[in-house]
Amino acid sequence: MPSVSTLTTADSALLVQISDSHLFAEADGTLLGMNTRDSLQKVIELVRQQQPQIDLIVASGDISQDGTLESYQQFRNLTRQLDAPARWIPGNHDEPMVMAEAAVQSALLESVVDLANWRITLLDSAVPGSVPGYLQDEQLQLLARSLSEAPERHHLVCFHHHPVSIGCAWMEPIGLRNPEGLFAVLDRFPQVRAVLWGHVHQEFDQDRNGVRLMASPSTCIQFEPGSEDFKVGEQAPGYRWLRLLPDGVLETGVERVTGFDFTVDYGSDGY
Known about the structure:
Blueprint: E1 13-18, E2 30-31, E3 34-35, H1 36-50, E4 56-60, H2 69-79, E5 86-89, H3 96-102, E6 112-115, E7 118-122, H4 137-148, E8 154-158, H5 179-186, E9 192-197, E10 204-208, E11 211-215, E12 238-244, E13 250-256
Parallel strand pairs: 1-4, 4-5, 7-8, 8-9, 9-11
Antiparallel strand pairs: 1-12, 2-3, 6-7, 10-11, 12-13
Helix pairs in contact: 1-2, 2-3, 4-5
């Protein structure tokens, strides 16, 4: 099984989640009025200040807004500033074939990685041409195999779409369409500690049967928590850090860029 570091099972590991960057081929590309490349750069600068030693970066989907090779190349170049191994998973805005081209000669798209005393499994919940997500049978089989082959490790499972309600009525129809399939697998394995996703552009942290369920801010626009209809929040771009301890305890927090001014432009190209 590929390992990304020299950490032993007695060590703790630091994982950084970067999500929903929505990059364009053009440097001046904007989403609802926000320059997504500039906001990603500000988040990366914040990560560099706060996290001097990162063991793994997880980019949890919607890396690109326009699906261009240039947008993925830009993401790869920008995140190189963090000098840490990384893994990518696709979101509903991504183009998997183009992602694969951008990730050539790298481990960016590997779906299972062992890190210290943890195993991280990265699933593809994206459906071509669809905003909602679905975990195909081969993804659920990959998950079951990954969990069953490492019973002694603690497990973190990552994908793009939310598998539970996050309290935003407008997002209810665009989450994971088969969460019961996911939880049927997870419930069989007591070593599962946490599930992590993107897509919702906001912080979320709940417990389900002793498993931590978490979502994180976007590196660009934020969605207003608890909103009935589509609404962009005033929260700043951010990221999530996760400290994976050898005994299975997970410490985590969300950090946001400070001094970030942004006026949403609902008249521009929508989300």
